[in-house]
Amino acid sequence: MLTIGIAGGTGSGKTTVVQKITEHFSEGEVVVVPQDSYYRDNSDIPLLEDRQKINFDHPDAIDFDLLRQQLSELQHGRTIEQPIYSYLTCTRSKETLTVHPAHIIIVEGILIFTDKMLRDMLDILVYVDADPDDRLVRVIARDTMERGRDVGKVIDRYEKTLKPMHLQFIEPTKRYADLILPQGGHNQVGIDMLTATIENHLKNK
């Protein structure tokens, strides 16, 4: 079993990298553990507009205890009930997602390298890098189309929250990476190198 962490800024192309890795291997060989599923439940905050003001780019927004616990379960060959988090309501769903263990576990998220105990559970640490302008364009497209947010509010949030949090918490974690992938999902050479590294690790384990 091999556990890979894929981090990087919001809109850097992490999801594309994960998809390309997953497509390279057979069905059932890879399981993905997204950090976004482990945002803390905010149902105790009654107003949606107040929940939307939460700083989702700060490590305190993540339930790392649950993330590490469930990752450990998967690493020991046990099935988990992964939380389902809604960006539309900023709360955790009552339903869960049944996730089975696999030979390759990918933990993906902007803040996963900020937690030392979680980093120590990873075999390979990958940082997906991208130009800030490219990341902003992707964030605007994603948040307006998938999360129903106004363009002006997305840009305002980027300037006031995403950018400073990226510089304070996310960018510094690049130093922990075993491999840095510039250009995100467009870097096919880098992705090919990563998949080859994964195959090599699996053969030697």
Give structural attributes.
single chain; 205 residues; alpha/beta; 5-stranded parallel beta sheet; two-stranded antiparallel sheet; 40% helix; 20% strand
Helical content band = 40-55%
- How do the SSEs run, as a string of H and E? EHEHHEEEHEHHEH
**What is the 3D shape?**
globular
Number of strands: 7
The N- to C-terminal Cα distance equals 8 Å
Integer average pLDDT: 89
Q: What composes the largest sheet?
A: 5 strands, parallel
Strand composition percent: 15-25%
> What gyration radius follows from the Cα positions, in whole Å?
17 Å
Unreliable residue runs: none
Count, helices: 7
- Provide the spatial order of strands within the biggest beta sheet: 2-5-1-6-7
Structural class by secondary-structure content = alpha/beta
Describe this structure in words.
- This protein has 205 residues and is of the alpha/beta class.
- The protein is built from seven helices and seven strands; from the N terminus they run E-H-E-H-H-E-E-E-H-E-H-H-E-H.
- It has helices at 14-24, 48-51, 64-75, 116-119, 132-145, 151-170, 188-204; strands at residues 2-8, 30-34, 80-86, 91-99, 104-108, 124-128, 179-181.
- The strands form two sheets. The protein has a five-stranded parallel beta sheet with strand order 2-5-1-6-7, sandwiched between helices. The protein has a two-stranded antiparallel sheet with strand order 3-4.
- Strand 3 and strand 4 (91-99) form a beta hairpin.
- Helix 5 (132-145) packs across helix 6 (151-170).
- It is globular and about 50 Å long.
- It starts with a strand and ends with a helix.
